[in-house]
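G., the chain you wanted modeled:
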Amino acid sequence: MDMDKSLYIPEKPNHPSSAQATENSVLEPQCPLCGAVVENPVSPQPAKVIQWLGPWAAQRLGFFNLPQDFLLSVVIPVYNERPTIEQVLRRVQAVPIPKEVLVVDDGSTDGTREYLASLPQQENFRVFFHPMNLGKGAALRTAFNQVKGQVVLIQDADLEYDPAEYPRLIQPIVEGVADVVYGSRFASDGPHRVLYFWHYVANKCITTLSNMLTDLNLTDVETCYKAFRREVINQIAPTLKERGFGIEIELTAKVARRRCRIYEVGVSYFGRTYQEGKKIGLRDALHAFWCILRYAVAD
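Predicted structure as tokens:
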């Protein structure tokens, strides 16, 4: 699985808030620690690891063979994430999995839009622009209509989730046991930032009520990390209605109604405070409860 150098988007040193970018800034891979250009990046070779450790041990460590023509579609909805967007794109492109990246700017006003507009569009890196802020659900719907990969994965642009965990997320789908995989923040032995108690309570209540009406036993229905077989996305995308954060509940209700094989894997979580840019709030929690009831009775 060779990393495509032409798609690697490094963070510009010394100018974290600059809206300017040059074409050269997306051509060379960089060391994530020191920022130096890496001339010959080393890509992991799962086949060797499987040979050395054996299939069972390698599988447990997240090493598995991808189909020869495999393509992962990474969908990134973005709204006012100028401080983090460059690093998110750099981390996503550093994951050694063949991929396309679809970024949807949802009417940003903080320089994110200008930065994204300055990047060269390529076959496997595309940016779409909403004329105004329509919501996360609307951004996802825009991207879902454009995906080409066998697996579609949602990535937020705020650095709360680590793209290095993509292999664990897609493994059950690649191995043919899952149609949908959720990355749970509450079922992981990885780092998890300790933050707002009432957010935790609200999440547990939302997840519990959702489980009661979908007959699932998820631990984190509101997680960003959701991966789908493209056939699942093709089936449900035309039916999606939610424009905001209610899309998380709608997606869950619709994959449950279609009896998709749903798995969970634990993921790390590097949460943000409101001062750091967190956007979800009480209104979104109340709307989530309404969406649970709405999509329990209607598709």
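Strands lie at 72-78, 99-105, 125-129, 151-154, 180-184, 226-229, 262-266.

Shout if anything looks off.
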